[in-house]
């Protein structure tokens, strides 16, 4: 008789043209071994699914009811009714790429991640960086393909290690698991996810009014500090985006805290209004930034001397770049760059200026500050990234957990 092993999954999907709700799934491991009584709980996370211009990406499939298999299976074996368990540390990316591109039949895929990649894990090992690079390559493969079988992620533990060892042993002997031969069965029973037609974009803003000089009736100029907070990754619940763009959000909140203290005293209040904004939809062409800018009162928008967008500023290389769309000889651009350069020199790191013109005919926005530039507001993006990321890249992947 088989004993059921239950495991609950936390899962979510990402915002885009196609949107899918957060699903709570149950992973059931059934050990089909005579007279064996064991149970364990494992959290699993489903691969994202989304559409771009009506083209599906990720996996549309969620239900599982198949026996487990490993890379030790005999070549030529039929895996159409098997869930292939792949530890990241043993992953052959070329094998998986061929399997997906050739549309070979597979019952499902379970990818086991090292515990060192779990969000919030502060243990740093020499092998961790290699795992991050491999996971980034795997994630890029999975989110840019239309995969015809369910895909899940889980973290290694003693129970998964024991299960995989048993599966490998049987596969190596040519004893592929079936209902009659025994083995482990992975079961997820859940209804198909529903498309969310109108995703919600939520922007958050704060305001610190400056102080006019005595007798000055003119409207004070404004400086805007902006950071996008949304993430995109292969498994939404694991896409915490520690650097992209958690670092930008943390930097904005710290700047807001410091200036809030200064501006609470009229004697230390500056001659600038300070406008802070946390914007949604960053991975999706900075749609939230565009929506927020257009919602601003025209007088407020026109009062903005310049905006500084913070994106992936948690650099370990002691170098940041100021990306701009307006010519470097623009007075405000000079002011921004000189200010950052002076601070960088005092703190012992480098700042460089990179100029890139906006292609108005292209709706794709490379940097957040380009949404400002399209509305004729001077802006710059401070980032550790030297080149603009492609759509949905550097947006909080599974490997971005530092």
Strand content: 25-35%
Count of spatially separate domains: 2
Strand order of the largest sheet: 1-2-11-6-7-8-10-3
The outline comes out as elongated
Question: What's the total number of strands?
Answer: 18
* CA gyration radius, whole angstroms: 25 Å
**Helix amount:** 10-25%
Largest sheet: 8 strands, mixed
Number of contiguous helices:
8
Instruction: Classify the secondary structure makeup into a structural class.
Output: alpha/beta
Show unreliable segments: 1-26, 33-37
Average pLDDT, rounded to a whole number, is: 86
Q: What's the order of the H and E elements?
A: EEEEEEEHEHEEHEEEHEHHEEHEHE
N- and C-termini, Cα separation: 44 Å
InterPro entries: EF_Hand_1_Ca_BS, Nicalin
Protein name: Nicalin
Membrane topology: Single-pass membrane protein
Keywords: Endoplasmic reticulum, Glycoprotein, Membrane, Signal, Transmembrane, Transmembrane helix
